[in-house]
Amino acid sequence: MTVEKGKQVTDFTLPANNGESVSLSDYKGKNVVLYFYPKDMTPGCTTEACDFRDQHEKFEDLDAVILGVSPDPVESHEKFINKYDLPFLLLADEDHQVAEQFGVWKLKKNFGKEYYGIERSTFIIDKEGNLAEEYRKVKVQGHVEAALEYIRENLK
């Protein structure tokens, strides 16, 4: 794992649903909510994305940008955004390099099968690019509100 609370987060660049390549450093001077999720259009991921959508303006009011990351390709992200009217960028980490950088690419078990995938996690990065807070093994219910509250209380 290469991310550590209080330390600078290594820059990365990924393709986004808007057709551009997006780097973490593009958001220097803003708080960044970087959330990793397993798969577009699945129930838990849809709930989480819609929770972020519904609180989007409150995050913006706190000078925070939301970026979602999954191994799905950009085309899948575009459909997800269009279907649920998501107002933030989704980044395609198809080779899971950034997920590995953040230590969220994990061996998972489901119905007796083992496979690698994203462990739902959120990282709050401050305006200087340092990791301020991390939420691992996220349970969707109440999570977005907790992230919002953290920024409101700790990052001005």
TrEMBL record:
GO terms for biological process: cell redox homeostasis; cellular response to oxidative stress. Its EC number is 1.11.1.24. Thiol-specific peroxidase that catalyzes the reduction of hydrogen peroxide and organic hydroperoxides to water and alcohols, respectively. Plays a role in cell protection against oxidative stress by detoxifying peroxides and as sensor of hydrogen peroxide-mediated signaling events. Monomer. The active site is at 45 (cysteine sulfenic acid (-soh) intermediate). One of its GO terms (molecular function) is thioredoxin peroxidase activity. The lineage of its organism: Bacteria, Bacillati, Bacillota, Bacilli, Bacillales. It comes from Halobacillus dabanensis. This is thioredoxin-dependent peroxiredoxin.
